[in-house]
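Recap quiz, item 2
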Amino acid sequence: MRNLIRADLYRIFKGKGVYISIAVFILFMVTIVWANGTGTVGVDVYVFQNPDYDIEAYAHELEMLAETKMTGKMAPGMLADGTSDLIYFILPFIVIIAAADFSKGTAKNLISAGESRLKYFMSKLILTGIVCVSIVGIYLLLSILISTIMNGFGGSFDMEFVTETAKIYLPQLFLIFAYSCIGLLVTFTLKTTASLISIYVAFSLVPTILIMILQDVNEKLIDLIQYDLVFNMKTFAYPDGAFPPDLTRTLLLGFGCILICTISGFLLFRKAEIK
Amino acid sequence: MQNNVLQTRNITKRYGTAAAVDNVSLAIRKGDIYGLIGRNGAGKTTLMRMITALTFANSGELEIFGQTSEKGLNESRKRMGSVVEMPALYPNLTAVQNLEYYRILRGIPDKNVIQKTLELVNLTDTGKKKFKNFSLGMKQRLGLALALLNSPDFIILDEPINGLDPMGIVEMRETIKKLNTENSITFMISSHILSELSLIATRYGIIEGGRLIKELTAAELQEQCQQCLSVKVDDTAKASAIIETVLQTKKYKVVGSDEIRIYENYSDTAEVTYQLNANGVRVSGVAVVGDNLEEYFVSLVEKGVKNA
């Protein structure tokens, strides 16, 4: 399996796709840090979902935020809401890592040469995990680095800062990986890049929209949103938000998603035809 | 000692109710160049896809290098190279980069293996040209290079001359022959062009409608396709003596009690008939018989269809 991962890394870095994706990602990072990353988009959801929220206090908060320069120390907290957007930056990597093998037909070269399907599947899973860690890591590092260059670090780099950052980003990273597993499941089941892209993107939006619509039918159905992966990612951006994050639920949700996607993905791939 | 490289026993693959491969049992011995001949859609590629684990049989047993278990088969496939359907490599990588990817993947420590393999298939001068810009012939050759990368004992090639120009066909044929004789590599090659396969194959399997309708050696095929003069006589012993002494040929065969087949010096039918009659042998019928390769293939396929 180590050889599979090494070979894929060689291939990925020999192609242009990875450099284009990284360049677009860095541009995105610079743009959002430059725009001072107020993270108000995430706050909006909680404000409108919580009737007890003091709208005047919220307006005051926004004013304060607008006046605040984002320092390196503040960056991880202020940009945490955007972490859920990273799933879209992981998509091109899933295409390069896994979907390309099926669309180009190169998967057959490995399988016909006696490579175990389990090892092949697992190597793609591990590589996707490495990509998730790298993307979240780069997001965090770049946000701290760029805002430090712009406005200074604004404090000391202490253990508390590390712990607070880890509290926000580790659960988010876990959920991002769980979400990526859905991409792998689609890839290994349908084996086309188009279906991967459409289902992957749709899955980030459709559940939330559906729950919002269902809410009109029955208000209690809004609780379903707690089982939406993207919602959970956003929740961890605001540990003190209207829906405080429930670590147990998130862990169960993430584990469930990873397990279901991995097991069903492999079982479907195990006896699948390779074109 | 294991002499069969590949053996299939009643292997069947169905898509819905239609059998793409139907109870095929064949054996490929070490050193063979096994030609699998059949029309388009006869089941050649499906059979090869089952051997290379790209699809699975509904029933029957597959044995490669003596292994039949799933794990054993996977291990055996590591001694194989294959190009099934079109060669598929990464379009944005060069020939060297593509082979380097598979070298790392297969854990081959010797980096020189790439250059050596490219030399074998005459593809050393492609430089920075990407796979997507290769001609079909170059793609076929790089596909063969990939199959050769791990020094396999057995190579499966699906229609390797498809799309090649005449020079490319000759080169591919020579490369296969060379690998078979010098490197002792066993080949299974599919084609729908019997005349092309007949130039390299040592054994043949003819497949039609998913069924293996005939297996024969190169010598048997040559015999089947050799034209001769069939003479019906009343006394085969006497006729044999005349053929040897008067017509001065030993290339003849007695078939049954009243037929002799002459494979040499038979173009003058009148002379053969006259000499036999003149020496007291009664000739009741004379005919030139025997198919050329294409006719033989067509007749076999037609028989196969009728018997299906």
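Residues 166-182 of chain B form the longest helix (17 residues).
The mean pLDDT of chain B is 88.
End of item.
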